[in-house]
Design a protein that fits this description.
Helices cover 41% and strands 12% of the residues. The protein is an alpha/beta fold. Strands 2-1-3-4 form a four-stranded parallel beta sheet, with helices on both faces. α3 crosses α7. It starts with 9 loop residues before the first helix and ends with a helix. The N terminus is likely disordered.
Length: 332
């Protein structure tokens, strides 16, 4: 991994120590079929779910991720082999509304324990921030891009709310608690360990939340610009305003009016940086930044860990995000 930060906080160290075996080896690129390991077999939809399963399950679980490192989760198409994995697994952990093919496959699967993270916390409606433009006295006419049909004909429907809950440490902790209870019920022989591991993970997430609160407390602007609207929960949690080039779906191209609007917002609110992410094209973000004389930087939605990630796990990448936000927002 290309970890470009020499300092690792106590939160990240605690997270690694709690794993016991360090990294998400089982869920990163595992191609073995679930069901033959002698452990509690969990199929997770993508990295944030796999990370929860590993941290909570510890040595008692075998985790297989349906989304491979470097693959954009929204674009996932379930293969026949993965369908077979689901049929053999003890549990499926997913986030309904993010990956339509996963929702369909799990819905049709005979798997006994189906854990939908979207049911473990309250989802909210986010997208491009329509209300922000009103502060500038102009009618921006944002499109609320909650439904978008991709090249495969899937309806990327987020009517149930913004699915990016893992980017808010508080909501992610709520999900962790729900997953822990589900594991305890499904595999009661190891309930005590699941309960203990869940408590440790929640404590780490509370510490991360405090890092964000204190790290962003003294800033010169509240507004940040991103390539797609993944950070609505994070923005709401810490009193920020996310202005997204695209909507909730990263493949959606912005209109010319939206680009002009963002240029005005950047000027009015002292925006210094346009953020892009590692798993989708940075072309639009860099074009906008070039046209407005702004810098670019990475704000990672932590949908997968690759060699290009600024860290080796959720905690390290989130702390890198905090560093990037502090710089962009002029935090002292």
């Amino acid at each position: 991994m290309n970890v470009r930060r020499r300092h690792i906080s106590a939160v990240a160290l605690t997270a690694v120590a709690a794993l016991g075996f360090g990294t998400l080896t089982a869920c990163s690129s595992d191609s073995a079929a679930a069901g033959d390991t002698g452990t509690f077999d969990v199929v997770a939809s993508f990295y944030p779910m796999a990370f929860l399963a590993e941290r909570i399950g510890g040595e008692h679980v075998h985790v297989t991720s349906l989304t491979q490192p470097g693959q954009e989760p929204h674009d996932l198409e379930i293969s026949a082999r993965q369908t077979a994995q689901l049929e053999e697994a003890d549990a499926a952990l997913y986030l309904k509304g993010l990956q339509p093919s996963v929702d369909e496959a799990i819905g049709q699967s005979p798997i006994a324990t189906k854990i939908d993270a979207a049911e473990l916390t309250a989802l909210e409606e986010h997208g491009t921030e329509a209300g922000h433009g009103e502060e500038h006295g102009d009618e921006h006419g944002h499109e609320d891009e909650h439904a978008h049909e991709d090249e495969h004909g899937h309806d990327h429907d987020h009517e149930g709310g913004d699915p990016h809950i893992w980017l808010d440490p508080v909501k992610y902790a709520e999900v962790a608690e729900g997953v822990g209870k589900a594991f305890q019920k499904a595999d009661p022989d190891h309930a005590a360990d699941y309960r203990k591991n869940t408590a440790t993970l929640v404590k780490d997430l509370e510490a991360l939340d405090e890092e964000f609160r204190t790290g962003l407390a003294n800033r010169t602007t509240d507004v940040f610009v991103t390539s797609h609207a993944a950070f609505g929960y994070l923005a709401e949690r810490y009193g920020l305003t996310e202005e997204a080039i695209s909507g909730l779906d990263p493949d959606t191209e912005p209109s010319g009016a939206r680009v002009k609007e963002l240029q005005k917002i950047a000027k009015d609110d002292g925006v210094t940086t346009v953020f892009y992410e590692t798993l989708v094209s940075d072309k639009t973000a860099k074009t906008l930044a070039g046209d407005t004389g702004l810098k670019t930087d990475v704000l990672d939605p932590v949908e997968g860990i690759t060699d290009h990630s600024r860290g080796e796990d959720y905690f390290q990448v989130m702390e890198a995000n905090l560093t990037a936000l502090r710089t962009a927002l002029g935090a002292r």
